[in-house]
Design brief:
The chain is 65% helix and 0% strand.
């Protein structure tokens, strides 16, 4: 009797071999499941859910902050006093009639004129609208960043992944931004929008946005120098022209109270007072409103250096070892000006690249911010720009996910600390320390932000040949 043929015939062309009937069904499906899990498209929906959760949490923080503003001094109260004084034609600086103890108004006069709109809405409704604008500014900033990123990266879920990255990295920054009622999201929006429009040939619109940023936070004035170095003379001159025009904003607001000539004189005196009462003491005495503030959460180079080498402001001893404060102050100044200078020079050499221009402009502005007397964690909202740039570099053709590694320290040392602390509070877990404040005490967020901007700049060094980015040429 012949033996049965046990040889296995090769499968017909185009047909899969039949698997062994004894193989478990789960094992047969496993390769397909793993393949789907490895696909980025399969994670877009869960990422979208996480984006929604984080956004809702931050929106809730904004609502709680609105209630908090009614009985605890926050930065919004300084804006409110400035807006009230400019309406009434009172002095904006010093001990004015509407100055709130511990929250003096220190911003340029034009911003007080802008904020007077909210003052006219009344205390309750005006502060509620101002709180809502934080979400509006954040949405507009994301819209600008996503619109730009989409011209570089054409992948499914690009918007969701960019939103998730920004929310995770800047969760703590936006938390504090809302808690204080601050303006850094608006500044980041104006800086990015202005630079993007200038590089796309829309010099006038971009100049208006940059001029507004300068009248809110002053330090974006360094971007005028950047434009000149890039030989974008029309945009630079237009920015200066709009800056001069916006100095009349206090006159427009105070005109019903003071008349035409009185309001113009008032606007002039407001700017003189701002230069003599705010800027001059800051430049010559190193003080803000008569105070030298070196304690946490101040993250300026000078403040962190003071805590490291002079006095941690808790125990009376330095965190590391003792050094003369004059040396600490000098090194901080040299580091700030040096980084700003290098960034401007790099921007000059990479003017044909929109990505490089945005990164080096951000680095120059960041360098001056940390060299300032005060730098808080809500100032980190500006990091949205280099984070988005690294996102584009990582996802573009030829990019690598490793280019996103520099965002990890900032996310862990700021948002990560907040997540842990928030979880402990919700679960009522006893804590022996404040992770957020401890991180700020040691200046970890400052170090992480420095690593972020320097890493982004490293990928855009002019030594690496950059072609003009034709995708940015149109709106």
């Amino acid at each position: 009797m012949a033996e049965p043929d046990t040889r296995t015939e090769p499968p017909a062309h185009g047909r899969e071999p039949v698997s062994d009937a004894s193989e478990p069904a789960a094992d047969r499906k496993q390769p397909d499941i793993l393949k789907r899990l490895r696909s980025p498209e399969s994670w877009v929906a869960p990422a979208g859910v996480l984006v929604a959760i984080l956004a809702l949490v931050l929106a809730g923080v904004g609502a709680i902050a609105f209630v908090d503003w009614t009985h605890i001094p926050r930065d919004i109260l300084a804006y409110w006093s400035g807006g009230t004084n400019v309406i009434e034609g009172n002095s904006l600086y010093g001990d004015g009639p509407n100055t709130i103890a511990g929250r003096p108004y220190l911003y340029p006069p034009a911003f007080a004129a802008f904020f007077s709109f909210f003052v006219r809405l009344g205390p309750r409704f005006g502060t509620a609208v101002w709180g809502a604008t934080h979400l509006l500014f954040a949405a507009l900033l994301f819209r600008e960043l996503y619109g730009w990123a989409r011209t570089k990266v054409d992948r499914p879920g690009t918007g969701i992944w960019l939103a998730l990255l920004l929310l995770v990295v800047l969760f703590q920054a936006f938390w504090t931004e809302q808690w204080e009622g601050q303006v850094n999201t608006l500044v980041a929006l104006l800086v990015f929008g202005g630079l993007l429009r200038v590089t796309r040939g829309r010099e006038i619109t971009g100049a208006v946005m940059l001029a507004l940023a300068i009248h809110v936070k002053v330090l974006p004035a360094v971007l005028v120098l950047l434009l000149l170095l890039q030989k974008r003379n029309r945009a630079a001159l237009a920015t200066l022209g709009f800056c001069l025009l916006f100095t009349l904003a206090p006159a427009l607001v105070s005109m019903p109270k003071l008349g035409v000539f009185g309001s113009v004189a008032y606007a002039f005196h407001c700017h003189i007072d701002w230069l003599t009462d705010v800027m001059w003491p800051a430049l010559t005495k190193g003080s803000v409103a008569g105070t030298q503030y070196y304690a946490a959460p101040n993250l300026s180079l000078r403040a962190v250096g003071y805590r490291w080498f002079v006095d941690d402001m808790d125990t009376g001893a330095p965190l590391l070892f003792g050094l003369p404060f004059g040396l600490v102050r000098a090194v901080s100044l040299i580091a700030s000006v040096g980084l700003a200078g290098v960034s401007l020079w790099m921007a000059r050499r990479t003017k044909d690249s929109t990505t490089a221009t945005i990164v080096w402009a951000t680095t120059a502005l960041f360098a001056l911010q940390i060299g300032n007397l005060l730098y808080w964690d809500h100032h980190l909202m500006l990091m949205a720009l280099p984070v988005a740039a690294l996102f584009v570099l990582a996802l573009r053709e030829g990019g690598s996910w490793k280019q996103l590694v520099p965002v990890v320290p900032l996310a862990l040392l700021t948002s990560g600390a907040r997540f842990v602390q928030l979880t402990a509070e919700v679960l009522e877990i006893p804590r022996d320390s404040d992770l957020v404040r401890d991180s700020q005490m040691w200046g970890f967020p400052l170090m992480a932000a420095l690593l972020l901007v320097l890493s982004a700049g490293k990928y855009l060094l002019p030594a690496r040949k950059t072609e003009p980015e034709t995708a940015d040429a149109t709106d």
